[in-house]
Amino acid sequence: MKTDAIEAVFERYCAGFPREDMVVLKIEHTRRVAANARQIMEGEGFPERLRGPGMAAAWWHDVGRFPQFTKYHTFSDRVSVNHALMSCAEVLRLGWLDGCEPWERNAVLRAIECHNLRDLPSGLSADESPLAQVVRDADKLDILTVLDRAIATDYLPSHPEVYWGLPFRAPPSAKVVAAIERGESVDYADITSFADFVFIQLAWCNGGFAFGESRRLALARGEVRIRREYLKTLVAGEDAVIDRCCDIAEAALREGGRHGA
Prior knowledge:
mainly alpha, single chain
């Protein structure tokens, strides 16, 4: 699977959708996810046979977002459809994996299918598991980048659709904070405010990255520092909680694994 051909397929597909702001956002997101995936696989020394399928999964992981937004005018899966499954359906419908070896086809589809799950399912094959982890890490890294840019441009207050219209300056959920402090992944059902979206990203830093290269990139980009500073301007009276969760996240990035308070 040649990376330039994979990218060209994605770009041709996107050209069929109107260049609305939210569509452009997803196009740019995908390009950065692909760059992250390439860097992770290079940094981790992935075998050459897995790099093509890994890049295909990274480039195509969100193609379902485009018909999702066209039909439902939202990126919220809980009020529309599972965009990962829609992405798989689009890849199959358009025949992008026709002619691939069965193991390649399965690995790409499983990586796409699993990229938005809270946890990876058991039973993935030796090819499927690392590719699913690459796409999940690459996707998380860019969601961190998207928030960094939104903070820098003050984009968020006027775009509540990005965070499901939840209260913007409300404090984080006690359940979300407790999960981070215990070193656990966060249940999206516990989200009650925009701050929770930011805290969930701290949870990703606390053991949510599969690869050392992903943690290194998050550290080099200052992701915890950016969230520490921003959260203190976003919600009042929560500095101690913010510092505690950020300290846990930063220690996990530096040392690997999950940390708890």
